[in-house]
Amino acid sequence: MGKKKFSWKDTGIKNKAFLKVGILIIAMFLVMVAAFAVIFQKSTIQEQGEYTRKRLKNTSEYLDTYLNEVSAIANETNYDYYLQNYLMNVKEGEGSNIIMKIQNYEMGTKIFSYAINNRTDVSSILVFGKKEVLLYKSLYSYRNAAVDYRGYPWYKDAVENPQKTIVTGPQSHVFLSGNTEKTLSLSKVISSSEDGSFLGVILIDINLNQIAEICTSSYGNDGSAFAILNQEGELVYSLQQADEILDFQNGDILEKLDQYISGNNSQETMIRLLDNRYQLCVKHMEDTGWNLVSLMPRSTILKSINNTIKFIVFFGTMLVIVVCLALNSILTQVIKPITLLKNKMDVAETSNLKVRAEVISQDEVGMLSQSYNNMMDRIENLMDQVVKEQESKRKFELEALQAQINPHFLYNTLDSIIWMAESKDNKVVQMTEALAKLFRIALNKGNEFITLENEIEHVRNYLIIQSMRYRNKFDYEITVDEAVKKCCTIKLIIQPIVENSIYHGIKWKKTKGNIKIKACKNDGKVWIEVIDDGAGMSPEVCRTILQADVKREDITGSGVGVRNVNARIKLYFGEAYGLQFESWEGKGTKVTICIPDLSVKGGVPIE
Amino acid sequence: MNKKWIKTGVLLTFFILSGCQKAKDFSPPKETEETKTDIVIGATLASRDSPYLQTISEYMVAKAEEENITLMLEYADWDAEVQTQQLNEFRRRQVDAVIFCPVNTKAMQMPLKKLKEAQIPVINLNMRVDAVSSVYVDTYIGASNSQEASMAAEMVIEIFGADGGQIGIIEGAPGSDAQIYRTQTFVEQLTAHPEIEIVALGKGGWDREKARLAAWDMLTKYPKLQVIYCHDSDMAMGAITAVEDLNLQGRVQVIGISESEEYIQAVQEGRLYGFVTQPPEYEGITSIEKAVDAAGGMTLRAWYKSPIQIVTGENVELFIRSSR
């Protein structure tokens, strides 16, 4: 079903879903067909059984009606004035009037002649007395042999049950010559209407014409075999319609049927006869003792079902194919935006971060695309930010380094050294050493990170130089807790602030100034305070001193602003850290540097 | 908890069982047939207007009282539909036996078949159903139409004597056994008497007025007509009216079949020459007797034939005396 068009790698989900749903649909279809076949087969056999039972019931009713109709002829003898008179005449013997006797005979046998001439089924009507035949109307001649008919069932049973019409046969009577076909016989006692005394037994022979007609018309042509068996299990009549013709003349079959019939009378059953399976249905007729037997080959019952099932399988297969094709296209449609998104992602991953997924719909895939786009936007922003930050860092670092090698400061310091050397001042060594140390620490092998101890050392050297240059202008005091000495910081953050204190605070003071530097650890952070008692600042200046957009005209000295320090701290350590200014005009300024408590190893901070 | 359930169960079982007991009590009483007091017999007669059937029913009621049985007596008013319903109702009520005098001979086949299936014995009274329907009835109580016709023929032969003469027949509605055999046998019997000539056949339709008109036609057409044989005495009374209207009293004799007070009186007055009758007493009483027998499981023979007799001016007084 077109599976080969797609490679597993490209459309994995689709193919998996397709395979699973496909298998599910086919399995359901197979289960449905199987269940349908079983249920339908069962119900069809059952329905066929019910139908056959109904039909047998109808047939038995028709047969009953027919036999009643024939037995009405026998019954009528009880009411026929002339026949009764004739039989009485015969009974009385020689004494009766011969003319009357003839007249009574003529009149009395009229209905018999009528029945034989007009009916297709009645072949003989005979009346038997106790010793001899009293009258007969027949297509065949009566063989007047000395036959003791009183032993025959038709006579014996009739005499024993004077109320009933006895049905016997099939048989051919020995006393009717020329009658080769087997006939059924209805016999009944004729009793006198005067006193109820026995007058004779009437025997009506019927052929199977009417029975055949009833059975054929009510039984139809449906591929089943139908038979009428009498009380003794002998075949009365059979109708052959089965594809596999059952020979009811076969004694074995009759015997087997007889067994089934005597065992089970009401419900239809499946039986096996001559290697074929048949549905057997039996209807017992009370009046005659006959059993109507219907044998429907199982294959005939199931023929129509098999066709139906074939059709369903064909139709279902077509349906499954259509469903699978539809499923394929649905899955393709579902997968399509995901594939597109994936392709975009591939592009983004390998080359172009600017690529964005198209948001086609508002479903899960649409939302996924949107989220992806948002994520990509954010990544892009972050990358921009990182680039910018790196640029800033480099810029500020460069600025800071430039500040350290400020030519003015270097010139002034070297001038001081020359001057001190000329005047043989012995402090020249100390100053030169301080300058050398200052630059060594400032450069720090190109590393941005430095221990606080070194940073303090750098400031100390700076202060040594400045205090020599501005002799007696200020005193300084450095207090560093042991705990913070090994802490990590970025370089050149304290010196610019001290420089600020000297040039903007102490320089303008008439008296000798004081600069205090403290470093301690508190709240998991490292605090470095630079306190001077210089000129101080107005609150406005103090507020705006760290704002980037304020151009301060009066920046002097090394030219490296405190903003550089603040910006660098924030860039390296985050927004939570930086500088704080407190100032009291005319009284001094306190600058607090806040950095995280980190240690340094190999020039890189570690937590 | 468990005990409660057991109690409920026991109570429920008790109620169900007592319910069953009650249901049994309601079923129709059938078992005690020895006392005869519980026997219920349903009877439907063709009409309450027929004097003859009326008399039969009186005997039936009297006999039922004597036998101490319940008799449900219905009349069908010559309506086959009504009679079918009555027979079905008897079957529904599961009576012990059914006596019925049919509205017509062929219309009752289905209800009779159903009664037979329900194994309720059926006694066919007075008018015999057709041959096929008669397979479903247990017995017929009634006269032989042929025998009646045969006796009517004897009466006619007696009237004419050796001289012979002309005779007319007024038949009942065609199709019934009575109409067929009362003519057929009558004609058959007269074949031995060529001196008697049947010249006219009129349609009386079991109706007095129609019979009068038929007789009028006959008498005017055949002035020599000496005897009119009517299929029943009611039509004979109509024929007598025609005879009297034409002032032919004494010259034309009328005979009929079946009896009633009116006809007997007519015989006494000499207006009606005579009639053949089966006594209603026999049919009324025998029907109840046989119904009781059948309800008791006794097998009945096919026909209980009503005795027939001729009533003429000669024996009418004796007849009156014997029947009272």
Overall description:
The complex is a heterodimer of chains A (607) and B (324). Chain A has a domain at 387-606: Histidine kinase-like ATPase, C-terminal domain (Heat Shock Protein 90), CATH 3.30.565. Chain A has 15 helices and 21 strands. Chain A has helices spanning 12-76, 81-92, 98-108, 110-118, 153-160, 209-219, 251-263, 298-350, 364-404, 407-422, 428-443, 452-469, 494-506, 539-544, 562-573, and strands at residues 122-128, 133-138, 141-142, 166-171, 176-177, 183-191, 198-206, 225-229, 235-240, 269-273, 276-284, 291-297, 449-451, 474-480, 488-490, 513-522, 525-532, 578-584, 588-596, 599-601, 604-606. The radius of gyration of chain A is 66 Å and the shape is rod-shaped. The two termini of chain A are 61 Å apart. Chain B is an alpha/beta fold. Chain B has two domains: 40-143 and 280-306, Rossmann fold (3-Layer(aba) Sandwich), CATH 3.40.50; 145-277, Response regulator (Rossmann fold), CATH 3.40.50. Helix content of chain B is 48%, strand content 19%. In chain B, the strands form two sheets. In chain B, strands 2-1-3-4-5-11 form a six-stranded parallel β-sheet, sandwiched between helices. Mean pLDDT of chain B is 85; it is low at 17-36. Chain A binds chain B through residues 68-69, 71-73, 75-76, 78-79, 81-82, 99, 103, 107, 162-163, 165, 191, 193-194, 196, and chain B through 128, 131-132, 134-136, 138, 140, 144-147, 150, 181, 185, 188, 192, 299, 301-303, 305.
